[in-house]
Amino acid sequence: MHAPTVTLRFAQALIQAAHRLGITPPPLPDGEERIPLAIQDALWQHLCSESSDPLIGIQLGQTLQVGHLDVAGMLLMSCETYGESLEALVEYLPIIGEGSEVTLHAAGSHVELGYTPVYDVCRAARVEAVLSAVLHLSRWSTGGFFQPQALYFRHAALDDPQRYPGLLGCPVHFEADGNFLRFHRDMLDLPLIQANSVLRDQLRALADQTLRQLDEESLGNQVAELIRAHPRAGKERIAELLAISGRHLNRRLAEEGLSFKQLRDRELLYLAEMALRRDEKIAAIAEALGFSDESAFAKAFRRWTGMSPSQFRA
Q1: What is the mean pLDDT of residues 198-221?
Q2: Are 135 and 196 within one domain?
Q3: Which among 64-68, 116-120, 146-150, 271-275 has the top mean pLDDT?
Q4: HSE-CB of 100 using CA atoms within 13 angstroms
Q5: Any idea what the CATH number is for the domain that residue 266 is in?
Q6: Is the predicted pLDDT of residue 138 greater than 50, yes or no?
Q7: Considering only 196-210, 212-226, 288-302, which range has the smallest mean pLDDT?
Q8: Residue 280, domain extent
Q9: Could you say which of 162, 187, 212 is where a domain stops?
């Protein structure tokens, strides 16, 4: 599996939220339709550290619009019923963000829509953003008829627990067995205000095509996986592992709009950030990633992120 990515539109939603809050966010890569999870992590880290509101995730989730969810969002809104839209969300979530999981579980008279994240950076705030966005769009798509029973979070409250019901309009429970939205089974039959079966079928075909593209094992994905497994390896060694020449590797990557340096920098940044979060020694990280010394690694890390490894860890 290649490194998880997020749709550009969702990353742009974070950028827009940052500007509304008077925060200058780090720039997004140019010409990318998908954003590596490591870059999304950095965006969230910046937003959470610069915001004065511990519930920034909820504030953001309630401002998300259908367009921020790419073709998957438009597909969900064109479904006939709320239940059909949730089934589509379970199937097409990778279009919005790869790696995380949405589940739908019915038990007795109620249904639970669960969410399991793949990320660790700002996990609690991001989970709150996702579930508050689901709640917000559930109400909007049903013309206000959707009524939740409660929201459950695995983490402890990030601020005064009394703030949550006021912002979300329903009971909220913390330190639960999982992250999920609970509602009565009857809600599944609610019609959606933008239901359009013809458009739905067209969007489903487009969404299926997008999923296939994400699932395809492109050369870029293969190279990314090999760099992660062999971070000290250079271009010629990676080409050798693929049984092709370095020149052929360059040509093939160029056909996908990529370069070896671009991929290597991206994957080394991801590995570096994970190691820094584990509090590994900077010298050890530099050696593991193939840098000549700690200074060379620090210089590269500053070029990638605009900060030193020590500043990132702090």
Answers
A1: 84
A2: yes
A3: 146-150
A4: 21
A5: 1.10.10.60
A6: yes
A7: 212-226
A8: 219-313
A9: 212
| pLDDT tens-digit series, residues 111-127 | 999 999 988 899 999 99
- pTM greater than the 0.85 cutoff: no
Shared-domain flag, residues 229 and 301: yes
Say how many domains are in the chain: 2
Find the length of the chain: 314
Two structure tokens written together for 258: 């990529």
Residue 204 has pLDDT above 80, yes or no: yes
Whether residue 133 sits in one domain with residue 45: yes
Domain C-terminal end among 212, 234, 252: 212
Adjacency order of strands within the sheet including 110-116: 101-107, 110-116, 180-184, 148-152, 172-173
What is the rounded CA–CA span in Å between residue 206 and residue 163? Answer: 40
Dist CA 144 CA 131 (whole Å): 17
Residues 170 and 227 occupy one common structural domain: no
Task: Say yes or no: 79 and 181 in one domain.
Answer: yes
Q: What is the pLDDT of residue 255?
A: 72
